[in-house]
Amino acid sequence: MFLLILLFVVIVVIVAVGLCGYGGRTLSDHGLRRASAPFGLRGLAALAGAGACALYAWGLLAVCGAVMTAEDGGTDSSPPRSCRTAGWMERHRQGIEIAGYRVEYLPLGFVCETSDGGSYDNGDVPGYVNPAVLGLALAAAGGAIGSGYLTELRARAEFRRQQAG
After folding, report:
1. What is the number of helices (H) and of strands (E) in the chain?
2. Is the pLDDT of residue 34 over 80?
3. Most-buried pick from 3, 25, 42, 118 (CB within 10 A)?
């Protein structure tokens, strides 16, 4: 699983760099002040998407570290060290053991499962990552949809002008 998460990190970083390049080039080719609204929205949407990808990669690196620690075998490997958060010893005294772990990709997190059927997030992913990724992804989607909508409105207005005269 560790190598799979690292592969995801590489892919997400490549996408972030590509979106950043596209957004920067779109804004610089047309100029931020001279650009029509669709080009400006398209460039800003790409930059917001790049920010979302970069933050998601940061969160994936945190999860990758937790998985690497949890999969580390040896004398002190049970329960997984990544799951030894505040209060785990009290649960252990009550007979609730750590049964395993799983990685959640949306929202991003490392989740420890307990023997009583419960689960909890160990908190390795910083608290700002998931809300910021959601906000930037929504901004990117809104900018892309808005750009397409404005382009369609302008194309229809041009078509009406050609039909009228």
Report:
1. 4, 3
2. no
3. 42
Q: What is the pLDDT of residue 35?
A: 63
CA-based nearest residue to 100, from 89, 115, 88: 115
What dihedral do alpha carbons 49, 51, 53, 57 form, nearest 10°? Answer: 180
Question: What length is written for the chain?
Answer: 165
**What's the predicted TM-score (pTM) here?**
0.86
The total of other beta-carbon atoms located within 10 Å of residue 2's CB is 14
3-state secondary structure of 123: coil
Between 165 and 49, the more confident residue is 49
Q: How far apart are the C-alpha atoms of 74 and 126, rounded to whole Å?
A: 28
Predicted pLDDT at 77: 67
**92 is written with which tokens?**
């252990």
Q: Which of 112, 116, 42 is nearest to 81 (CA)?
A: 112
Amino acid present at 44? L
Give buried/exposed letters for 24-62 (b at 16+ CB in 10 A, else e).
Answer: eebbeebeeeebeebbbbbbbbbbbbbbbbbbbbbbbbb
